[in-house]
Amino acid sequence: MKKGCVVCYVAAIILVTTLLQTCSVTAFFADAVPQPFVSPGHGFPGFNSMRHRNILRDEVTARLKELGNVSDSKDVLQRTFLSPAALAAGRLLAVWMKDAGLRTWEDELGNVHGRSDGANATAPALLLGSHMDTVIDAGRYDGALGIVTAIAAVKVLKVEGKLHQFPRPIEIIAFSDEEGIRFQTTFLGSSAVAGTFQPKHLKNVDARGISIGAALRAASHLGTTESVSSLKYNPASVWGYVELHIEQGPVLEAHGLPLGVVEAIAGQTRLTVRVHGSQGHAGTVPMSMRKDPMIAAAQSIVSIENICTHPEKGVGGSRGATAMSTAVNHAGAIVCTVGEIHSWPGASNVIPGEVMFTIDVRSKDDSDRETNVVRIEGGIHKICRKRGVRCSIERKHEANAIACAPGLNDRLHAAAQAAMKELPPFRNNVSALDDGGFTAPTLVSGAGHDAMAMASLTQVGMLFLRCTGGVSHSPAEHVQDDDIWAGSLALLHFMEGVLGDLSR
Ligand SMILES: [Zn+2]
User: In this structure, are residues 358 and 339 in contact, taking their beta carbons and an 8 Å threshold?
Assistant: First the structure.
């Protein structure tokens, strides 16, 4: 028996030593290489964010799944402004807002609000939110994520008894329309709250000829200019607006981190170009005698790529003289897309008579955008002149860039960093990066968000959450459960920071 025990001891020591070696090798790799963000499970002493993992992670993922099933189509996710599924989604969100300790109401544009007065009902309110409408064949995270994570963070404040101590009112808003799918007009919900909703839009009609006003009346709202105008918040009653959203791009994934802070939302110019040539027979007109608008369009599109790959900086008026250093410094600062092209009459045996294409130009710097739009326009006119075709360029849409508020961004940076440090194995990676002055990545949003509309009302801040492959507006849109946890936890840290203002 005694001899047997010695063998057991030796075996046990060998086993423990082997395990320790394995663990230290794993730890080495965890430090050296950014690892996929996996669930930490249990048994991390001192890991205080294990508190409320059920609310911040598990309940959020379950709710996103449930909300993702609220659709107007059996086959794909589709919730457009005031559709039956959109209204059902609003009711579901109101239930969850109530569960987080908020009183709720639906406003005259179908936005769903949940509010707690906190310790001072008349102090300027902290607004949080995102949109509950979706594109057609959507993913379940775009928009919904920002609402459901905010509800979770507020629910933790309630559970911990801090909601009524909050120094200012907290209000979550689920905006009824951001994507603009049904009425081809974006930010309907947030523009009403921000006071920039244009009453003429009440006459916009959907594919079935139903106007926004009529759709509102069908959903038991008044649908009048007055009822919508009354939604405008008094700027003095609002402290700021914070939105968490999926990145919809690949940058955070490339950084190997779940969270980033948005520095600005890019401004946009949309152009429509029409090139008119000589329509003719594909077999009978010699190449030298053609005025083919398709070739002019093709050459123009390549010129647009060249300009946007090597943009010229607007500030300082360097227009017309491309400095190489400027081009290098500004590479990536502007993005240009030709997403739509049509030819008339569009037959394989006809030289087209007209070609129409669109250009979408975005940059965080309005003056850079304008400089390069002028270069694009000039380039197209030059190509058209050379090829003997006529072209016209129309500016269809112009929106200036929005800078996020530095004060809110500082708080969001700190909150994002604290959240990532609490969640292993990021804790190791972020701590290692800290030595080099690490801060959460700062990003520019190329996509528009409700924060863009809200910026005309109040200071705005945004957090981006990594999504797999940068894919969005697709059923393939995906966010890891633990990344969602990091997002909700960051919002909680942000609010706890505001709560800490009381003691300052
Ligand atoms: Zn969105």
Answer: yes
Dihedral Cα 323, 326, 331, 336, nearest 10 deg: -70
Q: Where are the domains of the chain?
A: 48-265+402-503, 267-399
103 contacts: CB under 8 Å, gap ≥ 6: 114, 115, 116
Q: Answer yes or no: same fold for 48-265+402-503 and 267-399.
A: no
Lowest mean pLDDT among 180-194, 227-241, 327-341: 327-341
Q: How far is the CA of 135 from the centre of ligand 1 (A)?
A: 9
SS3 content of the chain, % helix, strand, coil (to 5): 45, 20, 35
Compute the distance from residue 141 Cα to the ligand 1 centre, in Å.
8
- H/E stretch holding 250 reads none
Cα(187) to centroid(ligand 1), Å? 10
Cα(179) to ligand 1 centroid in Å equals 7
pTM listed for this prediction: 0.80
Question: Ligand 1 centre and the CA of 504: distance in Å?
Answer: 35
Beta-carbon neighbours within 5 Å of ion ligand 1 = 142-143
CATH 3.30.70.360 fits 267-399, yes or no: yes
- Measured CA to CA, the distance from residue 33 to residue 37 in angstroms comes to 12
Average pLDDT over the chain reads 86
Give the fold, CATH level 3, of 48-265+402-503: Aminopeptidase (3.40.630)
SS3 112: strand
pLDDT digits (tens, 9 = 90+) for 391-449: 999 998 888 999 999 999 999 999 998 898 888 657 766 655 555 555 788 999 988 89
Q: How far apart are CA 487 and CA 162, in angstroms?
A: 20
Ligand 1 centroid distance, CA of 433 (Å): 30
Encoded amino acid at 501, one letter: D
10 Å CB burial of residue 308 (0-12, 13-18, 19+) is buried
Q: Find the 132 Cα to ligand 1 centroid distance in Å.
A: 9
- Tell me the CA–centroid distance for residue 3 and ligand 1, in Å: 69
